[in-house]
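Q: We require from you a single protein entry containing the residue sequence and its fold in C-alpha cell form, and nothing else.
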Amino acid sequence: MPSKSGLDFHSITEKYRYRIGEIARTNEIRESNSHIIHFGYASVLKKGNGAFILRSDKTWRFAIVLERVRGKDPYIDFIVDDIGSIKRITPKHW
C-alpha cells in the first residue's frame, strides 16, 4: 500500500530484502568515505531507490530515497525509519 509519500514501501523493501532502518549486514558494506552506499552510485539514485546511509550512531542503515533535487543546491532526502523520519544528504557526503 502506498504511503503518504506515494511510495509503496512494502514492494520496495521486498526488492532489497531490507526493512527501512534495518542495520546492514557486514558483507553488504565496504569501506567508504561517503555517507551513502547504493547498489551502484549515489549519482544515479532516484525516488524509490534503496541505499545504505551512515547514521549519527555510526551504523549503516537501509533507507529509501524520498526526493532527489538537482541544480545549484542539490540533495537527496531519505526516509530512514518506519515513522517517516527524513535525513537530507548533500553532495559533499556522496
User: Anything to note?
Assistant: The chain has a mean pLDDT of 79. The beta strands are 36-38, 50-54, 60-69, 75-79, 86-89.
